[in-house]
Amino acid sequence: MIYTEKLPTAEQFYELFETTGWNKKYELTIEELYLALENSWYTISVFDNEQLVGFGRIICDGVVHALILDVIIHPERQGEGIGKNVMDKLVAKCKKHKIRDIQLFSAKDKAGFYEKLGFKNRAENAPGMEMEKF
Ligand SMILES: CC(C)(COP(=O)(O)OP(=O)(O)OC[C@H]1O[C@@H](n2cnc3c(N)ncnc32)[C@H](O)[C@@H]1OP(=O)(O)O)[C@@H](O)C(=O)NCCC(=O)NCCS
After folding, report:
1. Which residue pairs, CB below 8 angstroms and at least 24 apart, start in 91-97?
2. pLDDT of 35
3. Is residue 105, in this structure, part of any structural domain at all?
4. Which atom of ligand 1 is found nearest the CA of 105?
5. Predicted pLDDT of residue 84
6. pLDDT value of residue 46
């Protein structure tokens, strides 16, 4: 297994992204999705025999805030510790650059995965907020 900062191809990533079902909501084309990847501050791709089996990325201002996104492990390869390894590398990158805080959005039923890594819910009176229709 290889963990690399090298981007996968657009096709490889689209295929992995499609395993999540998230694109039902976003309706991203393969080109749009790849542009988003290319605009990331940092990416980690995990390959096993040329197959993309895991991924994670950070968007970041380089100094204060980082946002971890698209941590995806292929369904056939979940539960092998790959997700934890990807997260460790993303967090290590932030640590190296002395980023002051790391944000993320947990997908449904995945909060326990992030809690094990030390992430906590924000305080109830200071929640994360979002706007989807604007
Ligand atoms: C969530 C996901 C990234 C976890 O990756 P993974 O490679 O399967 O997880 P790991 O094998 O590295 O697990 C690390 C630890 O987290 C635990 N864990 C994994 N998924 C969990 C979950 N949903 N809830 C609670 N704990 C979880 C594991 O049991 C393991 O615990 P251990 O260290 O005590 O053995 C993976 O299931 C995935 O890609 N899911 C689909 C996409 C997705 O929802 N991504 C999250 C976006 S917010």
Report:
1. 91/117, 93/42, 93/58, 94/58, 94/60, 94/66, 97/60, 97/62, 97/63
2. 98
3. yes
4. 48
5. 98
6. 99
Q: Which segments in the chain show pLDDT lower than 70? A: none
Q: What is the pLDDT of residue 114?
A: 98
Tokens of 36: 């988003």
Could you tell me the residue range of the domain that residue 21 belongs to?
Answer: 2-116
What's the pLDDT at 71? 98
Tokens of 93: 């990158």
Domain presence at residue 89? yes
CATH code assigned at 19: 3.40.630.30
Please report the pLDDT score of residue 106 as a whole number.
96
Distance of alpha carbon 97 from alpha carbon 95, whole angstroms: 5
> Could you tell me if residue 65 is inside a domain?
yes
C-alpha angle 38/120/55, rounded to 5°?
25
Q: Whose CA is nearest to atom 13 of ligand 1?
A: 81
* 21 Cβ inside 6 Å of ligand 1: no
Total domains in the fold of the chain: 1
